[in-house]
Amino acid sequence: QVVCGYGSQDALPFRAIKEGELYFQEDREVNLVELALATNIPKGCAETAVRVHVSYLDGKGNLEPQGAVPSAVSTLTDDLLKYYQHVTRAVLGDDPQLMKVALQDLQTNSKISALLPYFVYVVSGVKSVSHDLEQLNRLLHIARSLIQNPFLCLGSYVRSLIASVMYCALEPLAASINPLNDHWTLRDYAAMLLSRIFWTHGDLVSGLYHQILLSLQKVLADPVRPLCSHYGAVVGLHALGWK
């Protein structure tokens, strides 16, 4: 969106208050009737410089775009964009062998640093597919490949990855409603992944251990939480170790 008031070449009119040495900027009068009825909409002070682009998982492994293509995408090369699309479709698709190859390359590729925020965003889609254990597992596999890639510096993305992993471990997922769904194994895997992220990248975020510990203890001590959430907290604490 446009940031108004910056870079304007117009002089700002000021008025003085008679009662004291106080000055204030004089604003233009706005006709609310015209504004409400859209009969005289004021023009913007500049062109729109930032656009929003949203992608979401439709539950079938497809990334559904909404809105215009973000301007940031233009900074990526065509090869990187194609790589991102191919890897995402392979991991969330129906071919297990293709998924394995894509995850292996994601774990070892040294030229995908620019795509890190995009893959982290894909992993954050766990909340939109909480009913699908298979998709949740695949998103966690993407997170694991990212943290195991020695050429990637996760930096500030550590928090986002941990939030997605802890969601799988602690939240009463929609898939948990069906007793035939083995969401316990998913929580075990998420706990293991949580521990690995902390021990390999925990030094990038100050006070991370205590934040994770507090979150797990809070869930475990909450009597309202279901058994599956308590289980996730227990396996999470166990994975972190006795430190």
TrEMBL record:
GO biological process: RNA polymerase II preinitiation complex assembly
UniProt-recorded Gene Ontology molecular function terms: RNA polymerase II general transcription initiation factor activity; transcription coactivator activity
Listed InterPro entries: TAF6, TAF6_C, TAF6_C_sf
Keywords: Nucleus, Transcription, Transcription regulation
Any one GO cellular component localisation term in the record: transcription factor TFIID complex
Pfam families cross-referenced by the UniProt entry: TAF6_C (PF07571)
Entry keyword annotation includes Repressor: no
UniProt keyword Nucleus present: yes
CDD domains xref list: TAF6C
Subcellular location: Nucleus
Record domain TAF6 C-terminal HEAT repeat: where: 75-241
Protein family according to the UniProt entry: Belongs to the TAF6 family.
Name the UniProt record assigns to this protein: TAF6L factor
Species this protein is from: Fregata magnificens (Magnificent frigatebird)
